[in-house]
Amino acid sequence: MLLLAIDTSGRRGGITLARGDNDIEIIESTPIQGGTFSAELIPQIADLLAKHGYGPKDLQAVVAVTGPGSFTGLRVGLTAVKGLAEVLNLPIATVTSLEILLAAAGAQENTMAVLDAGRGEVYAAVQIGDLRQESLLIAAEAVALANSKRLRVVAAEPSVASKFPKADVIQYCSTEVVARLGLNKLRAGNTVDALALDANYIRKSEAEYMQKLKR
User: Fold this and answer.
1) CATH code, domain carrying 140
2) Which sign, positive or negative, has the C-alpha torsion 213, 140, 95, 155?
């Protein structure tokens, strides 16, 4: 199975071309800076495929990151995914930004993954056993929750990790983790239709937030 993994949820994102049936083989990953997704995503996909002798019609699946993260970035990425899936009739597997961080950390249970959400808040995913719950928390609330449940804390940014007494900073290529997670979901038949694909913002947009403040 030849698949394309796309992440436009953060300040940095990119694409990974991979193949696999049981085990994933990363063919190549290309980083893309946030702020350039709208201009660079489609050309980079075309270039990456052509570089390895493929065309869009060779793709058999696409894996998308649904957030939480940048509203603008997610819209760009998911629009591209929908377009590819609809034109080429491809299955779509989805993963969240927090799911990626947990997987990159090798977390199985009793772990909290945290990402910066701005305004003194964090996006948090708590993994206990097979259950994962994602939410938006004030940083102090997340610290209290981690302490009360004795959770291992993993973060992608040192600035977020510093808010916790003990936290591991995890470095990873998001789209390569996405490809691995996506392959497992595709094999299990855990896919979504292009029309049903939507972002997992967790929080309201900036415009909605400002409107709420004015009430």
Assistant:
1) 3.30.420
2) positive
Tell me, what CATH number does 11's domain have?
3.30.420.40
The two structure tokens encoding residue 146: 């981690």
| Rounded Cα gap, residues 190 and 94, in angstroms | 9
Torsion of the alpha carbons at 139, 33, 45 and 63, rounded to the nearest 10: -10
User: What is the rounded CA–CA span in Å between residue 75 and residue 26?
Assistant: 25
pTM over 0.70: yes
Q: Is 101 within a domain? A: no
Written as six digits, the tokens of 145 are 């929750």
Q: Tell me how far apart the alpha carbons of residues 21 and 3 are, in angstroms, rounded to a whole number.
A: 10
Torsion of CA 35, 36, 38, 42, to 10 degrees: -150
C-alpha to C-alpha distances, 215 to 11, 206, 211, nearest whole angstrom: 31, 15, 7
Number of domains in the chain: 2
- Return the DSSP state at 210: H
pLDDT tens track of the chain, all 215 residues?
999 999 999 999 999 999 999 899 999 999 999 889 999 999 999 999 999 999 999 999 999 999 999 999 999 999 999 999 999 999 999 999 999 999 999 977 899 999 999 999 999 999 998 899 999 999 999 999 999 999 999 999 999 999 999 999 999 999 999 999 999 999 999 999 999 999 999 875 444 433 433 44
